[in-house]
User: Fold this.
Amino acid sequence: MKHRVFIAINLPEDIKKKLAFEQEEIESSFDISPMRWTRKDNLHITLAFLGYVQDDEIVEICQLTKSIVQKQEPFSLNLTKICYGPPEKMPPRMIWATGEKSQELAKLKTGLEMILLESENSGFKNKEGRAFSPHITLGRIRAWQWKQINPEERPVVEKEISLKFDINSIEVMESQLKRGGTTYTILESALLGS
Assistant:
């Protein structure tokens, strides 16, 4: 059986609640919303998207993830801005919460990508060419609805925030696309520095 798998940082509940509040604020700024919001429980930072993998490959992916994560001590990350994203794309496709660049996070992501690329069974093939900028997708913009909004009536989404939290674990997650929306299941939680 194939599973749609990715590796991510889950957010603490209090951070999810604050981001959900920001989603509501932005939603209210639209007359007719073009947004498909990420459910609060699904808010996360993706470190590596693996795509569809088999049951036996998941075991190896979990082992590889643990081997990298245990070499790194827990660290903190600060989310600093809510904005349209990706920054270089126009019209925008999403609304993001972005974080400060972090040496610890960059090291962790690079280590994960390297070990996954070396494995024949991970399914991982897409190492990012550009520097990693941590971000959380708060919502996706429906392009056809966005085009219906007069450009002068599109709200400005550019807000400075400061939401700092500790990263103590990395999760191997499964994404299941269902009629009522996407659901995520933790397959393995790997503690940093353990």
